Protein 1
Amino acid sequence: MADSKYSMEDIVSLCKRRGFVYPGSEIYGGEAGLYDFGPYGVELLNNIKKAWWKANVQLKPNYVGLDSAMFKNPKVWDASGHTSGFSDPLAECKNCNARIRVDKELEKVGVTADEKMSEDELNKLFDENRDKIKCPNCGKKDFSNVKAFNLLVKSNLGDFTDTGERPVYLPGEACQGIYLNFKNITDTTRMQVPFGVAQIGKAFRNEISPRNFLFRTRELEQMDTQLFIRPNENKENYEKAKEDRWKWYLSLGVKEENLRWKQHENLVFYCKEAWDIEYNFPTWGFDEIEGIHDRTDYDLSQHQKFSGTDLTYTDPRVGDKYIPWVVETSAGTGRVFLAVLSDAYVEEEVNGEKRTVLKFKEELAPIKAVVSPLLRNKPELVEKAKEVFEKLSQDKMCEYDDNGNIGKRYRRADEIGVPKCITVDFQTLEDGTVTVRDRDTMEQVRVKIEEL
Ligand code: GAP
């Protein structure tokens, strides 16, 4: 586990206590698989997305960004294979009506269900192992037959029929908008194959059993890149994408010993090869945070077939025509958020007291500095501290805090991972210096206000 001293419960509790993540619709008793990011959570999430965008768009000359509409013509999901093939095997407990994900329950008893299995094949495999599988809710072993449960979430946008004849879907994966705009991008920009398109977008999945906090949710967000390449140039581009994505996690400060690769034996319908980057989560251990997929020409060929639009590309350098192949990287923002938080979480003892610290890299810290007057009842210190706060917050997310004593302010700042605490005291009024306390070493130095 990330650091076996801490559990996911410690992380969940800190997230709630300090305004990182709240259970969705909490005042109504909640709603499974949904969470809201609070004031510090949204800052951390935005910083992760900014770091990703910088690495994948700003620093890569052959990549461009996109923000496509979530709703799409429903035929898109027929072409992509989601209306027919995007399902999880579900069975219901006849005693308590709990729904189980059959592949996950089989996995627990050492049996692998291939993603491509038909409903009949799944039922056969389930029947062979029924005696080993207990309902996680009531412990009984009496289940219904297995049904392939489609994960797409339906809506009625633009459907005025009352009977739901033309369902439209919320995106099952964010990346489809990139394929739909492949032609637009090559027609309107100077991008030539090989080039990549990056997008951060929401996806929705009717997960049978949302679980593990932000890990498996029904509403999620994905940071995707799709690299369009010449046919058969996938091997080298795939290896490069893997290397590149691994390094990105290290650049965020995630400890390398908490990361590992896992190759997919059971491939989803669009994939020729798939590797996951896994993070060693507290409590349940290594699990997927990002997938790198060799999608070949599957997506563009399907969209060409279903839309009737010619998506062949004429290579201006070689002069030949082809449907480009795709190498995809896809990371869930919620999972990356949880990995970054788990990796930064530390409990220490300082002078006999427990201190909880989030040791984020400064780039990711939700708040970069807290500015305080030494005493809140001295107007001259308060005025000066507010002046310093105003100056610093022009460039960075800072907070002004004059609640409680200075020790309490430090503890509060540590718990949300603030790298520097700046205190204005009487000496400030004389020589224009303030104390700057470092989150990790807890050392304090005097710095001139102009040099902050
Ligand atoms: N376009 C490719 C795709 O959607 P995926 O492996 O299904 O591939 C990519 O998803 C990433 O999205 C995963 O590695 C994970 O980080 C995130 N993800 C998928 N399902 C999720 C869920 N139910 N809750 C949270 N994150 C999820």
Protein 2
Amino acid sequence: MQVKSATFVVSNSEVAKCPNTMIPEYAFIGRSNVGKSSLINMLTNRKSLAKTSGRPGKTQLINHFLINKNWHLVDLPGYGYARVSKKDKKYFQKFITDYFEHRQQLVSAFVLVDCRHEPQPIDTDFMEYLGEHQIPFSIIFTKADKLKPNALERNIEFYKKTLLASAWIEFPNYFISSASNKIGQEEILAYIDEINNNFEQD
Ligand code: GTP
Ligand code: MG
């Protein structure tokens, strides 16, 4: 798929205020600084459609971008921990969970993880949360330019092995990306295009 047009639509702190157009939507989520906004710019061939920063916490709102006038990309803030005193339980920001639980247009999520890191509980917890809510998702291993091919392959194998050794029955669909080297652009856009085409046929 060629990205012919990409425009910023709106930023929101509440899912209820998000655009009510019934077009397919894809959301990018993951920890702060993992490269969500950079990936959106890379996918759309735009330098600063989504705002990026070296400092974590740049994206604070739910940001909608309209692509090729017929689908939405959504840039989200990083998820994080909040401590609940009673059970010391970790959870995700309410407006993020509200988004995932109530956004009807959401077709699929992309959970971004840094390819250099071992599986982190916050990420696997979020993937489990998506699974519990029957929200389809793919994993994107970001910043692939930071590793040599062998190390990258080893890390992904380790990631797979670790998840499959826990409660996971199968490893999710996944992509490898680099915003600096445009790795993954074609594959991720082709994947979205295929889903969009199925939508049009329905
Ligand atoms: P928040 O909005 O804070 O949640 O962060 P984010 O996930 O949107 O990350 P962002 O895209 O702002 O990128 C964070 C930092 O990582 C920036 O300094 C980027 O330049 C850098 N970065 C993002 N993607 C890549 C990549 O593929 N390769 C390299 N080398 N750096 C990257
Ligand atoms: Mg961001």
Protein 3
Amino acid sequence: MAAYDLKGKKVYVAGHRGMVGSAIVRRLAAEACTVLTATRAELDLTRQEQVEAWMERNRPDAVFLAAAKVGGIFANDTYPADFLYENMVLEANIIHAAHKVDVEKLLFLGSSCIYPKFADQPIVEESLLTGELEPTNEWYAIAKIAGIKLCQAYRKQHGNDFISAMPTNLYGPGDNFDLKSSHVMPALIRKAHDAKMSGAESVTVWGTGTPRREFLHVDDCAEACVHLMKVYSDFSHVNVGSGSDVTILELTEMVCRAVGFAGKIVHDLSKPDGTPRKLMSGAKLQGLGWTPKIALEDGIAATYQAFVDGNFAERQHVSAA
Ligand code: GDP
């Protein structure tokens, strides 16, 4: 299969302010391409006419579709309409507009929550649609499954080179640290940091701490996405993971060590555990010549540092105002 060359190409990163999109933009600095972005004020991705007009004006050669309404287990469970509607609409708008202006290559980003709640582990790509979804995030999952199917449908009907990548739980700089809407990693970083600063005796973890999750640093994910953009052109989506998982309790212990909080860990059993395990098989991506580089402990330490730096910058900004 001929490699897709990004050199000299106009590359649109949809969702460039998000954690994944911003990591892709950072990674693309190493490619001889022109990166196109649009802020939410310039382009509302849920408005079809705006998306089509923007695509018509800018005519990107390649698109990374990293825009999405994302959130942790609580947000997903609380705002099902927002997660289903906004994600379905924005991905349909971008994929259809990309087809209309003859985008050469598009990579759609989904999530490991597309797989059945009780899929065999490690989860292979072929497990898609073989069982019931996890109820706490099925709304988001259905929208992401529709995105994969859109890419496949445009490939089948029109021959568009649209591919999909399904990353595992991602973390890193630029993450959402708001406790009500965040995923577990940034939530634990914030909770452990706040506990350390206030001299609290304990941090509270949602659920039993027994669910297992796989984590990948977002810079590794961006690297994998650029790799796939260059080497992969096929119907099936591709898993993007780190290859190993930890329990939420083990993760909490790692975060507390990185933050320097030595207090107790207590459980809030009124919060859901969600899916028991979702370790993905990385065999397909490995076969395409890619493996992750950032070890979990190193990634957590770097993310904590970015959190502390960001917090400090925020405070300085406020006090200067
Ligand atoms: P999920 O992978 O879709 O379930 O999303 P999350 O990253 O939000 O949650 C992963 C697991 O971490 C679930 O079992 C949560 O109950 C657990 N968890 C423990 N403490 C927290 C927390 O403070 N915030 C979040 N979001 N999850 C937590």
Protein 4
Amino acid sequence: MATDLVSRLSLDHGGSILLAVMDGVGDIPIPEFGGLTPLEKAKTPNLDKLTQSGALGQQLPVGRGITPGSGPGHLALFGYDPVKYLVGRGALAALGIGFKLQHGDLAARINFCTLDDAGVILDRRAGRISTELCTELVEALKPITIPGVEVFVEPVKEHRACVIFRGPGLSESIHDTDPGLVGEKPLAVIATASGAERAVEVVAEFISKASVILRDKTPANGLLLRGFALHEDLPTLKDRFKLNPAAVALYPMYRGVASLAGMEQYQSEPADLSGEIKAAKNAVKDGKDFVFLHHKYTDSSGEDGDHERKATEIEKFDSAIPGLLECGFDVICITGDHSTPCPMKLHSWHPVPVLIYGGPQRTGWSTRFTEREAASGALGTFQGHELMSLLLAAAGRLAKFGA
Ligand code: ZN
């Protein structure tokens, strides 16, 4: 559905909405659980109760068969068609370390690598150097200046760092300098479309200065750049849906994606679910009418293939629900940004259960918040970015279309 229609119909008053995301919550049957999924195995009395008085369905974060990253997965939940609103890998890397991107910034990922005397790549990850060494190398690169642009170099993890160029006239139409295999030299900086001349000049100058600084270091004596992304401000949730939104998340990446959507950040003290509930309460007190709350550990346990821990994390989230109910939201939505099946140890394309509690709903169709019940729930199967209009409607924040 066209989100510009939803935008036109949005009202600046109505109920408040909580969007609680259990990252990567969807799963597939686990043999050790006798074919149950972690959601089916977990004891979730609170989720069950909400499900029985709400409506259940499943959403496709991007599309059938498409495996999303957490960036697109969340943008979809915030009502942005993730195919239309692309956030490049470089920009996500910068957001992931809490770097505040500005409109027009060009971001790219850096891999420190090992080169031989002829400049041929021996190891694209420099033997996965420690994060400490990465930070040292980044410190060595920080003094690099390029006339007309600001340069920011930031460590990420192990051999990974990122660089951000800030200045007028930059473009993301630049080919990765990483050839993707060893035994070749890093690729020259070339444009992939016209209009990228200035960006090519800037990136090439950065690489040349960085190469001089790195060449006598060991084992990381070179660098590869990839995932060039020009950061463009997105229209915010206020612009689009007349919401006054807040975000409660413990990890920078999710705070970053939320800030793209114009959400104000609330700090969680302590940095766990109990702190997140307090932060959500404060946001409601401040008059926020949309709060995004993020629970990370369902995803990390899935990526570790640890089904027992994933079920425990689901149970932990379940025990936080009474606290969330006390915040006084009119509509509560519980879902995930994608599935992370434990047997796969990866994100996957499988649809994600979604529960909407509050507002007039077709209640009584489902009894538990599980993949199996979600597939036949009252909400049916829909695109992730269509969730927002369902939430706005449940909160009485969408006008009628036509006479
Ligand atoms: Zn995720």
